[in-house]
């Protein structure tokens, strides 16, 4: 399932997009893949992440984890939502700068012992950096679904 939410009147853009899927894996397995930045390049459906240093496992709001994108620059990701096994969201920023206003969120809903509904959301409704707008506009439910599908493939393999 994919969805878009239009941003305020007059904008005519969908600045909140999401994709959901039921995955044959438990929430702990899925969350470990999401909350470990070193694992994120393995399931990134945008093909934007090159690598992340190990030992950055997210455990709380307020943490900042660093990733290197395919263009070579470093992103500092500010964790703004966290509930172990259930929810993780961060706001990316260029190195040494405040977050630009977009947010990546993962939500996990257990449906059984080894079945989880995974929802991935990209919210760029508060994005202020005009240089990032073309990339934000190009990120739709299809890219989010690709991330969910890659994550599912990793988790279901065990």
Automatic annotation (TrEMBL):
Gene3D superfamilies the record matches: 3.30.530.20
Name this polypeptide is given: Polyketide cyclase
Highest taxon above the source species: Bacteria
Region spans: Disordered: 1-21
Family annotation (CDD domains): SRPBCC_7
